[in-house]
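So, can you check this one?
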Amino acid sequence: MDTWLLSLNVGKCKSVAYGRRIDFSNKYKISDNVIEQVEQIKDLGVVFDSKLNFDEHIHVKINKAYQMSGIIRRNFIYLTPDSFMVLYKALVHSHLEYALCSKCVESTP
């Protein structure tokens, strides 16, 4: 980083260890600044935790879908089935489909 004169916001950098037995004894540094170690991190809208269990990601996506369906229900009282489907696909279904993991697919009926 210093050799190529690249700037990096060290305050935004995080370290996550993946595996069954996680060792937090290693301290990573960038330009003498210790990188914060976290249990989970969000990257491109996907929540990754240290055991690669996507329960938190699924929980976030379900809550967002409920939130969007509540917006449709409150703001669009008189809807035809066709217009409801357009709103549902745009506002709810798109959140559920983004970064769909295999665990989500297995649990769907």
About this structure: The mean pLDDT is 83. The helical segments are 55-75, 81-97, 102-107.
